[in-house]
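Subject: mismatched residue count in predicted assembly?

I count 357 residues in my input, but I want to confirm that the predicted structure covers every chain. Input:
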Amino acid sequence: MDRPIKTIQDKNSYLDLRKQERVTLLEILDRALEKGVVISGDIVISVADVDLVYLGLKVLLSSVETMEHLRGAPMAGAQEGPT
Amino acid sequence: MNTKEAKEGLIYLYCITDKVPKLKEIESLVDKPYFIYHQSLYAIVNKVKESEFAEENLKRNLADLEWIKKKANIHEKVIETVMKNSCAIPFKFGTIFNTEENLKIILKKHIGEFKDTLKYLEGKEEWGVKIYCDLEKLKKVMIQEDGEISKLDKEINSSSTGKAYLLKKKKEELLNIAVNKKLNEYGQISFDRLRESSQEAGINKLLPKEVTERNDEMILNSTFLINKDKIENFLNIVEDLRTKYTDRGLFFDCTGPWPPYNFCNPEKEKIHNG
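Triage response: the counts match. Full output below for your records.
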């Protein structure tokens, strides 16, 4: 797989100076695709569709669950994000 | 559906903001951005092609990593650009309306929630901390530190082949338990400390190596909404944790500020406010 790592080079972005790490596709997918306001648009990307994207990343979906097990019990006091 | 509008394309919604957006700055990112105004809120949109974003085509395109890379990046950049000048509510990638009318209906319906959310987000930033662990490194530490495992390790060296095999299995078992326990402990301690300086915090699902493209395992995927005057404090805590856990194989990937993707859903806000 190619490495989709990008740095923000847009000089106009106020975020540049404070981005601590490289902005990866991972970071954007983890946010823009998984989160953000979900309202009933005429077309929205469903959870199943997001899974499709991860399939595009050649991921076996079950491995996500496996990782959840590795972490074990959820962190106390944390709110699981909306899915 | 209005056929004329449909021919012109679908409406892609990026974000909502409460200050007049500077469209010139967004023009270099997407084709003809504009806004739809309703009761002091501006929905930033543009027309996108049905060949790309109509339901079936969108589903097909979601399987195309190159396409997603390009489009998700544009989505992010548009919102970041709006956020240079004002607070914004970021929408999920690929929020599409068939007509402007349909979008206006949603705007009207949720206007109160959007205003409340913008008010809440004012002066705050979203940051993310992903913690990874080099499990082999942590295992080595545990062999040294855990009395029982360390004892087994020594016994293995002085045992016959058969016995050594059984002891090794036992050691692996204990090691896995000990490592999982430590990972939970480190994750919890880190999360609690980072939460101290944040307004709100959340935990997202862990992502496997195929997605992270790293050799170590993700053990915590956390997000924080932080008051701007607490950012420095937050980053200092990240540094502290890095120092504290570096010899345990932990790596802290801290990124931000991000559009508040994780803290903009109305129901979540309600939980927070009590």
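Chain A has one domain: 5-71. Marking this ticket as 'not a bug'.
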